[in-house]
């Protein structure tokens, strides 16, 4: 096994015990980037020499007994919405030409302090306003979409071109590409991970979180990222918590909500079958299944778009008026549409969210987590704009991809996407676990238990 194939936890243990050096790991990941990047286009930029210098420093620190913890010497990719001092933050947009960050974002600073090593900035759908990341190819099939908007981060992790990565999630943008590329994606509780220094799409829906190979890896990264920062008005003042799950896989005493409505109503048969098998595995591990009804389903789509569209347009108001030609057409159309939404529409969406949060809190008093598909289909072919379901209904790709993930953004609850197999075409399928606010430890415990009961997953076979 090559070093780039190691999970974060395995690499961290090898570095801690001096069986692997940060230099060997970073060199292996950079070699892997050279090998796969021409076919996948996951990165906006790769900072190879900077990463090698940081790896040599991490090796010196380790030799001197100054081990910083499980992220010491671990190569990471950051979605190119996340500021790193002295580096461009392009948001994969011509609007940001010439931009250079003056200081680190909170999450970049925390990763740096923990010893992680930046290898590059990963592609996003322009300004995170889309679900496909069209410039990046799916790690399992280059003819299919990566998912978005954190497509570059998911593809980098799935292909071994990063040991872990960060993404952002406003309506599913961590979990959707994680599911479509066969990796783990965690959207934390709203406000748990600070967003200072991260380009916004929709401030009341935006989250930052990890994309990793395993659930244990996600827990390691979350532990380093979480914590209050007064520069983010939504940041929660929570005590420091080690989110890493224990070694056991016994889920006795936990209740898993199985939706009767919404999540399985319009889903590909192979996706539904794989997710139901995974839920049955949770039951076999001791969890109790309880059927539930998802509340206010007719309002989910309108609430998501009613919040996101006007907030995004407000953020881009100046550049939309001065340099509209620099935006890609799909994003410019959405931003211009936001100018047509009245204050009453936005206030009704806020009112709907308040009611939805209350109803979800009631359900999550009855169950510890809700288990459902992350995305109702596997990755569509590049350029496809609609999906035709078995009953003849036609849905846009963006609506389909966001439909099952957006409730967690509206309500702010944590959500974890875990790979649960492949369809007959070999494309990955993800199961989503949604929990109580600040219930990440339970989500991660359940996801980890499921993983422990399954064969180890391989990297995407990039051809």
Automatic annotation (TrEMBL):
Pfam families linked: Amidase
InterPro entries: Amidase, Amidase_CS, Amidase_dom, AS_sf
Domain Amidase residues, every copy: 24-444
PANTHER family: AMIDASE AMID-RELATED (PTHR11895:SF176), TRANSAMIDASE (PTHR11895)
Name of the protein in its database record: Amidase
Organism: Actinoallomurus liliacearum
């Amino acid at each position: 096994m090559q070093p780039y194939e190691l999970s974060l936890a395995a690499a961290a243990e090898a570095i801690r015990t001096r069986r692997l050096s940060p230099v060997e790991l970073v060199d292996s990941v950079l070699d892997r980037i050279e090998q796969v990047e021409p076919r996948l286009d996951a990165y906006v930029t790769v900072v190879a020499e900077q990463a090698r210098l940081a790896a040599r420093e991490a090796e010196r620190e380790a030799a001197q007994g100054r081990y910083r913890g499980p992220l010491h010497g671990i190569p990471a990719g950051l979605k190119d919405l996340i500021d790193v001092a002295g580096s461009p933050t392009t948001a994969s947009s011509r609007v940001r030409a010439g931009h250079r960050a003056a200081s680190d974002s909170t999450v970049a600073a925390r990763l740096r302090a923990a010893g992680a090593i930046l290898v590059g900035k990963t592609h996003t759908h322009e300004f995170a306003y889309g679900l496909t990341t069209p410039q990046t190819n799916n790690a399992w099939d280059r003819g299919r979409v990566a998912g978005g908007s954190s497509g570059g981060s998911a593809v980098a992790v799935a292909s071994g071109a990063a040991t872990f990565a960060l993404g952002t999630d406003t309506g599913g943008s961590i979990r959707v590409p994680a599911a479509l590329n066969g990796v783990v994606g965690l959207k934390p509780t709203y406000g748990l991970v600070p967003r200072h220094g991260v380009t916004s799409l929709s401030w009341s829906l935006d989250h930052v979180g990890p994309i990793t190979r395993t659930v244990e890896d996600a827990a390691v990264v979350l532990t380093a990222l979480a914590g209050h920062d007064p520069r983010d008005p939504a940041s929660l003042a929570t005590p420091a918590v080690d989110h890493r799950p224990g070694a056991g896989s016994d889920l006795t005493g936990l209740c898993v909500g199985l939706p009767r409505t919404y999540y399985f109503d319009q889903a590909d048969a192979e996706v539904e079958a794989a997710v139901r098998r995974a839920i049955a595995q949770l039951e076999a591990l001791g969890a109790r299944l309880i059927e539930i009804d998802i509340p206010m389903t007719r309002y989910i789509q309108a609430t998501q778009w009613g919040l996101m569209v006007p907030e995004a347009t407000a953020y881009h108001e100046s550049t939309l008026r001065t340099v509209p030609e620099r935006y890609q057409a799909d994003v410019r159309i959405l931003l211009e549409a936001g100018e047509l939404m009245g204050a009453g529409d936005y206030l009704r969406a806020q009112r709907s969210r308040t009611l939805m949060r209350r109803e979800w809190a009631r359900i999550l008093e009855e169950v510890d987590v809700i288990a459902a598909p992350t995305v109702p289909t596997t990755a569509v072919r590049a350029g496809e704009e609609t999906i035709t379901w078995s009953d003849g209904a036609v849905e846009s790709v963006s609506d389909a991809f966001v439909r099952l993930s957006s409730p967690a953004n509206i309500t702010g609850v944590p959500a974890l996407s875990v790979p649960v197999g492949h369809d007959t075409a070999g494309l990955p399928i993800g199961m989503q676990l949604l929990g109580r606010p600040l219930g990440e430890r339970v989500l991660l415990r359940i996801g980890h238990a499921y993983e422990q009961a399954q064969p180890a997953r391989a990297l995407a076979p990039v051809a």
